[in-house]
Amino acid sequence: MKYSKYSVIIIGSGIAGLYSALKIEQQVNLPDGLLLITKSGLGESNSRYAQGGMVAVMKENKSDSVASHISDTIKAGAGLSEFNTIKFISENSDAVVHDLLKFGVQFDKDENDNFCFTQEAAHSVRRILHSGGDATGRMIEQALCKKVKENKNIEVYEKTDAVELLVQSEDRLFNNISFSEKSQEQQIDTVLSPYRPIALSSDNSYTSIPPNLHTSKNCKGVVVFNSETGEYETIYSSAVILATGGVGQLYKYTTNPVDATGDGIALSYKAGAVLQDMEFIQFHPTALAIDCDENRFLISEAVRGEGAKLCDADGIEFMAKYDERKELAPRDVVTRANFNEMCKNKVNNVYLNASCIDSEKLAKRFPNISKKCLENGIDITKDFIPVAPAAHYFMGGVKTNLRGETSVKGLYAIGEVSSTGLHGGNRLASNSLLECVVCAYSVADYLKTLNLKTPKQIDEEIKSIIDKYNDEDVVLEEIDVKSLKSELQNIMWDYVGILRDEKSLTTALEKLSNIKFPRGSKCLNRDEYEFRNMLIVAKLITACALERKESRGAHFRTDYPKMNEACEHSVIDNSGKWKVENGKLSNFQFST
Ligand code: FAD
Ligand code: SIN
Fold it and tell me: For 54, which of 132, 217, 253, 433 could close a Cys bridge (C-beta 3.0–4.6 Å)?
């Protein structure tokens, strides 16, 4: 095995990973350099497919304000969003947009050179910036990728999976280790008990992790696997930043590309980090209801924002029955409406009618959606678009404060893998890209205050982790991961989906527990590593969904259809010893 060291390692090359790399390179003292690893190619990510846009409360948008953005986010998030978090992210959106412009990102402008703002569900004003019409994610990502590629101080490993975090207990004595020795212990692995109880915090007013809530764990680096060469490498670092994105691939129907397998969440869980709000999966109401192998193409909410209507096969509109905001009700409400119509009429989809929008505007504003639909024989200027809900976004994740710190020292999380408390029970459209960039900015701002010396010595605990991957004598027989993956995706869709109840969740846990995946830590290939992670995360989501006995936002329990009076986050870790204490995060400004 190869060994190396870097001052900072970033795992993931979506918008959170790319932007944090650029900001860290710009601001942080990096005696041992900066490494960005990604399991596919640079830029392959959920970020690339973002359509609608990015929320920005811009000073020039006189109809908007931070207060209005906070209010919309809290309402959409069913009360669970954290005030301080939203305020921080919202207040810094203008600064971050201007910084992105400096990196070559362009947002669409009108003929007078003013930003164009679009509307999406549950926003009370037009405040969403977009780029390339409906190609916002791709446009931002391409600009950032270009800068990362040009930057000689950012080393990039592609086709490289992070497979385990090097975590040691803090109070251990350090020993000098000879790396050539091999441990006899191969079997150490975290076994997840699916019925582990979760603790619910009663304090909804803060997002910080006060110092005394750090676990006694310390992250010293990561073991990575090159899926092309099959080689492992141990990388030591004093700051490991997870930017690994979401979990959509856990579901049969998803808008997320193949990489969204929850790796960062599984790795953090195994490392002992605290996870938050794991039961909250956002299902987007309008994925194109045409089967593809891996995911479903998204029909952006911005199409409804511009006036498109949902209807049944006869063209009868139904949203007024469900919510007075109709098509622009929060995403969870529209999703359940679509799902209900589909179940009631025993059909696989409803329809979106965009023919009421001026056809020139449609073509200009949504070039990619128009093209994709046309490829499938649908002319969106006159045909109904068949749409159905699909898993889209993960509101839960690794609990962090606004500096990206997790409960494990030296381990940071930003972007969709993190749970900052912004999204609450249901993410407000286009808040995710904003969270990615503000938190990427903020983690860099924090790291520049630290002395990032890489560890010189490691202890037995870390050595035993490395040894599991060093052992070349372990012969692994191939497993049919493709069918296991599809079994898991079916279970999650059928039993842990848009509507849940005790019976469905218990059934899911049983079925997930019956899936045999005979691997310890070391797997044969990338597909196996991903499946190992998916299985851990699926059990966690299901266990947390079973524990939350209420309906809130995207978590809808038919056996507990009402919202509890107490508005509480759920937290879980692999020790069951999580304790919640009060603490307030003070708002801090960027030092640009
Ligand atoms: P990602 O962009 O998902 O990147 C994760 C990266 O981590 C990838 O490069 C992946 O390969 C890598 N990775 C994962 N695991 C490992 C591992 N073990 N080792 C190494 N690398 C790893 N949000 C908005 O705000 N506005 C929108 O308009 C919008 N539209 C969307 C449309 C679609 C179709 C989808 C799917 C999502 C949309 N979202 C939107 C959500 C938003 O795009 C994502 O939440 C956001 O881009 C996540 O960015 P990220 O950098 O955190 O993760
Ligand atoms: C969309 O364009 O509908 C997706 C926006 C988002 O997920 O925030």
Answer: 433
* Model confidence band, residue 215 (pLDDT cutoffs 50, 70, 90): low
263 lines ligand 1 (CB under 6 A): yes
* Catalytic residue flag (residue 519): no
Q: Is pLDDT larger for residue 207 or for residue 318?
A: 318
Cα 393–chain centre separation: 6
What's the domain count of the chain? 1
What is the Cα–Cα distance from 59 to 63, expressed in whole angstroms?
10
Q: 307 is in which domain, residue-wise?
A: 285-390
Band (414; pLDDT cuts 50, 70, 90) = very high
Q: Report the nearest atom of ligand 2 relative to the CA of 282.
A: 7
What number does the ligand 1 atom closest to the CA of 530 have? Answer: 18
In a domain, 479, yes or no: no
> Is 26 a domain residue?
no
Is residue 402 domain-resident? no
- Separation between Cα atoms, residue 369 and residue 227, nearest integer Å: 33
Beta carbon of 278 within 6 Å of any ligand 1 atom:
no
> Angle 439-443-444 (CA atoms, 0-180°, nearest 5)?
120
Is residue 51 in contact with ligand 2, taking CB distance under 6 Å?
yes
Dump the DSSP string for 106-173. Answer: ---B-TTSPBPEE--TT-SS--EE-STTT-HHHHHHHHHHHHHHH-TTEEEE-SEEEEEEEEEETTSP
Residue 580 lies in a domain: no
Q: How many Å lie between the centroid of ligand 2 and the Cα of residue 313?
A: 24
Q: Is the CB of 76 under 6 A from ligand 1?
A: no
Q: Cα(131) to centroid of ligand 2, in Å?
A: 13
